[in-house]
Write a structure and sequence with these properties.
127 residues; mainly alpha; 73% helix; 0% strand; globular
């Protein structure tokens, strides 16, 4: 019974997944904007680039626009973030604070594999 419900509504579940990941990524970028406004983050830096990727990429994921490309760029950002920021503190993501980077990376792999599916602006380009 649960399996039938899940299969019948998989497009809706995936849409919610894509929007939640996009929203969290966007909010992650907004945190960096506030750091930039306080003078703690220069725009022309790796963190500034990460902020741009997260804000624009998060918005594009919410809209379902160029989903696979955005997810690919975002996944690369998360790999770089993990190895540059977290890995020097140890390999365990729970101990080095890198669990969010790993979870985002895994989510982006799903988005790369499945694309935007239904309820996305990408669908307007398929014709």
């Amino acid at each position: 019974m649960v399996k039938k419900f899940a299969e019948k509504n998989s497009d809706y579940f995936y849409f919610v997944f894509r929007v939640i990941i996009g929203l969290l990524f966007l909010l992650h970028g907004f945190m960096k904007i506030s750091m930039m406004q306080q003078g703690k983050l220069p725009l022309m830096s790796l963190m500034g680039l990460a902020m741009i990727i997260e804000v624009i990429g998060g918005a594009m994921l919410i809209l379902g626009l160029f989903t696979r490309y955005v997810a690919s760029i975002s996944a690369i950002e998360m790999i770089v973030a993990f190895f540059m920021v977290h890995y020097p503190k140890g390999i365990n993501p729970l101990a080095n604070g890198g669990e969010l980077a790993v979870l985002f990376f895994a989510a982006f792999l799903v988005l790369i594999a499945f694309g935007s599916r239904k309820f996305a602006l990408d669908n307007g380009f398929k014709k």
